[in-house]
Amino acid sequence: MSVHASSAASSRRNLLRASGLAGLVVAGSAVATGPAQAAPDRTGNVLRLDTVAALRALNTKPLTHGTQAVVAGYRTPGDGGTMALRWDNKSTATHNGGTVIAPNGTTNTGRWHQLHTGTLDFRTFGHFDADTPADNALDAMVNDPTVHRIEAHTDLLLTQRHLYNRSNIELDFGGHHLHTTGIEKNTHDNPFGAVLSFRGTPTDTTVKHALAAEVIELTDTFPVPDAKAFAVGQWWAVQVDPVAGGGRDERELQKLVEITEIVDAGHIRIGYLNGWELAEGRTLAWTRVDPVRNTHIRNMLFEGAGPDEYTGSHPVSFEYAVGCDVSGIHATGTFWPVIMRRWCTRFRTEDCSLKNPPTVEYGGAGYLTQQIYCLYGRVADCTTSNVRHLNDLTASAYCTVVNCHGDGDDAGGNPFTTHGQYEHDLLFDGNSGLMDIANSGAQWGISAKRITVRRHVCSWFTANTKITDLTLEDITVIARPTFDQAGTLTVNADGAQVRGCTAKTFAVAQRSARSGRPTTISDCTFEPAAGAVLVQTPVTAPVHFVRCTFQGVDGAILRGAGPVHFTDCTLTGAENAAPLSIGSADLRIDGGTYDNTGIELSGVRDQRITVTGGARFTGSNKAGALLGRADGPGRATWDITGLSSAATGPDTAHVRIADGTNHYAATGSRFTGGTLHLAPEALASVLHTTCVEDGTRRSAMPPAGDTVRTDGNLIL
Questions:
Q1: CA atoms within 13 A of residue 660's CA, in its CB half-sphere
Q2: Are 412 and 383 in contact (CB under 8 A)?
Q3: How confident is the model at residue 33 (pLDDT cuts 50, 70, 90)?
Q4: What is the spatial distance between Cα 469 and Cα 451, in angstroms, rounded to a whole number?
Q5: What class has domain 527-716?
Q6: E strands, 160-264, in order
Q7: Are the C-beta atoms of residues 476 and 501 closer than 8 Å to each other?
Q8: Which of the following CATH numbers is that of domain 201-290: 2.60.40, 2.40.160, 2.60.120, 2.40.10?
Q9: How confident is the model at residue 39 (pLDDT cuts 50, 70, 90)?
Q10: The pLDDT of residue 113 is above 90
């Protein structure tokens, strides 16, 4: 690491130790203590000069090859530009003012070459502020294969968009401000036109073939025409052709993968477990890539230069990159994503932030970080204010987003999103801010699988597209008057597991049916608005609510035809609330408490309702019936066992059946107060026995007969 040089009065030992150059100077040589001489000696002594200007003015004709010099500063002694150099009398390298320094006026051979251990500093190129562009110095350092670390110790100005293919290097800006005022114009729709862009090289070596058999899910072994075309350790970009009849960019597989084994003549193993089945006949295209590896960018303050895609600036992009990390970048006003990644594998983005991008309405703009076709990434400890997205994962897998927080999301996008291009196996943990999943449109497939979100706080959360095996744990959705006053949480009934969540409005949708696991909502609390749709019309999958609490319920609607099961749930109605309207073909209520609410079957289809397990219905509702049905063409089958129903007021019905065709059976139940209204014309069969009717009036009951049994009850 470069540090300030010692003063002229320092001893040789202290000078070299303080300058960090002791290991670069020949042991036993002496530093000249006087000023630079016009004709320095030829003894091999280390020359000492105050500045680079003095070094360039030095008469080099008497110098022997290999002569060494120590410069106490770039412009003034101790300014941080201290360096050691070696004279190469045969060098014709281009002068760059830092690693290569030519004597004044020379065009012939002979250059001073900076001696370093692989770590360089912008100050040794004469850059101490943001007044003069440092682009040439940056190019000189990055393009020098002997350099593995570049440091900035002051603010800097860069006015070019740099594209590199360089591995094994770290750029650390020390938390200083990187300015881009006057930066060159970007091209159209180019989020990879970053100030610091690193891109691997796709080669001309390609393999394309149709699958002779299905490629199963979660396999790392892939068929290929000839395994000899591949070698262990190579990197390949692989993608499948678009889904037939789907969106233009709807592909289940687009990843940068490493070849880990040649299995046999027709199979290779890659470093990735495939997330989706690929049917026989689908086409795979492989392109060998020489990726950028282990290039890291750290610690800068960055301010975007302009308000649009051409004049705006953003600090970092990686494409075809492996093991490339970003940390400590804090940006303001960038147009394109602060950190843009595509075809990247194994990376970390940590402790970064973005505030106030110029737009949140332009697609792809106003992000902190976007990842496209990425694997094994970690985004952690990041924050945003007033942005479109904090994090966007597109066609990516096996990534985590941890302890990230987005505020100011009222008028823009949502901090957390996935595109819906077949993302899979993603984890979001301990974050806050609006969130949606797989919601960018049919062009990409609106599909995702095995997404887990836990310990998340927001005011709106939607995951109602083709999302399979979604897991939500401890999600808190709090309504906010400046955005979604409904406080909405929506999921897709395709293997969703929702546990310990809180929201005002909750809804179950269905856009896909790929999962083998049930959709279960357990230990959650909701407070739906009057008339809210709890289960939407397209839902045909079974939905199971377990130990959930619904507060202030008033006419909630379950429209979908799929089975609905309530186990030990607590539903409390609002004042004079309407009962739940149920369209499910199979409703099962197992235990739980239903106070000042009730159930009304919609009658739009044949329906079965089962009430069992000691369920308790109490109070009354707007319809005046705790269990009832609407008029409709559907036949209803009622199976009531072990119900405890206590009606408020003499006119509230425990059960009211007056419309349609019904088959009714109630056994082992207790009815307290109120009425039982079983209209004979609406009942095809009745079994009402071994029940207790305590102060209950039978306002309608069919006479006993071959299809009616109403005896054997205890009437109190």
A1: 24
A2: no
A3: very low
A4: 7
A5: mainly beta
A6: 162-164, 169-179, 196-199, 201-210, 221-223, 235-240, 254-264
A7: yes
A8: 2.60.40
A9: very low
A10: yes
